[in-house]
Amino acid sequence: MHTGGEPVRIVLKGYPEIPGATILDKRRYARDHLDHLRRIVIHEPRGHDDMYGVVPVAPDLPGADLAVLFLTNDGYSTMCGHAVIALGRWAVESGLVAPREPETQVAIQCPCGLVTATVAVRNGRAGAVTFESVPAFAVAVDRDIEVPGLGHVTVDVGYGGAFYVLVPAARARLDVSRSAVRDLVEVGDAIARAAERQIPLDHPDGGDLAFYYGTILTDGGDGAARPSTNVCVFADRQVDRSATGSGVTARLAVEHARGRARPGAEYRFRSLTGDVFTGRIGRSSTAGAREAVTVLVGGRAYYTGRAQFTVEPDDPLGGGFRLG
Questions:
Q1: Which of 2, 37, 175, 246 is deepest in the core (most CB within 10 A)?
Q2: pLDDT of residue 74
Q3: Does the global pTM surpass 0.85?
């Protein structure tokens, strides 16, 4: 499937049962013992460096309809909004969750926690999906960091199921709508690496969640009067084709911390493909001792096909490879 042009491969068969009492235990087991399967699904010759995947696993939270692990080019994300939007539609149309009109709720356990997707259903077909995020919060607002090649850059850091550095691209002398993607990637990666060194992270649910997933370069807008364009550079220099659901969550959590995002108001965020996600502040919440909010993110996902992958035993490249 794809959401806003960002691919997501939902693995239906081929993985063994993944052991672990919790989803984070399963994530660690997959990383340590089954990473060869991630490379087969994501890397060339079947995929590419910007491919994304999902592996459904047994949930351990009461009320969850399914649980998932997320696959990137270099590992396992803790949250993925574009994939949740796709999973909501897939769960309803595959019969995993019985469809109800006009809306069906699908409870999806992600490594970051339980996310509820509300799927619009008409005549048995699923349409737009809106999900409510886990508690999201600001880590840093208007913090100066030193970035090699750029000097002092003022950034925000927000959590929306994953941690992002948020910065208007103009502060790095770039334009998200005009600059070459390779330049956005270089700067986004450099900013994330600099933030790792200078702004420490923690999460009340454990160290497995406390890492920088990427940088979101914005056009400087807030998404209120017109869609705000952003580019997310995540994992190992992947570029999100969608507006990044967990990134929209982090952006609105930071804007709420500033007092600029009004609860209930709709904000819009555009990706490089022109696709738009909506976002609204949901409920007040907490994350440990931090004040937090949930965010409602909406979008559409579409099917692109079905495939069966094969690895021949004498194929030296069959296990997947990356260039560069």
A1: 246
A2: 97
A3: yes
Question: How confident is the model over 12-29, as pLDDT tens digits?
Answer: 999 999 999 999 999 999
Beta carbons of 223 and 268 less than 8 angstroms apart: yes
Mean pLDDT (whole number) for 66-72: 98
Judged on CB neighbours under 10 Å (0-12, 13-18, 19+), 62 is exposed
Per CATH, 2-132 and 137-297 having the same topology is answered: yes
CA separation for the pair 173, 324 (Å, rounded): 26
The 10 Å Cβ neighbour count of residue 304 is 11
**188 vs 239: CA distance, rounded Å:** 10
Confidence of residue 306 (pLDDT cuts 50, 70, 90): very high
Q: What is the rounded distance in angstroms from the CA atom of residue 169 to the CA atom of residue 183?
A: 11
Q: What is the C-alpha separation between 26 and 32, in angstroms, rounded?
A: 10
Catalytic member of 80, 110, 112, 232: 80
Torsion of CA 17, 25, 242, 45, to 10 degrees: -50
Q: In 3-state terms, what secondary structure has residue 240?
A: coil
pLDDT in tens, 161-198: 999 999 999 999 999 999 999 999 999 999 999 999 99
112 catalytic? Reply is no
Domain coordinates in residue numbering, the chain? 2-132, 137-297
The CATH superfamily label for domain 2-132 reads: Diaminopimelate Epimerase; Chain A, domain 1 (3.10.310.10)
pLDDT score, position 324: 73
Structure tokens at 265: 């108001």
Q: Name which of 271, 260, 262 is nearest 299 in CA terms.
A: 271
Topology given in CATH for the domain delimited by 137-297: Diaminopimelate Epimerase; Chain A, domain 1 (3.10.310)
Q: Cα–chain-centroid distance for residue 118? A: 17
Cα 277 to Cα 300: distance, rounded to the nearest angstrom: 8
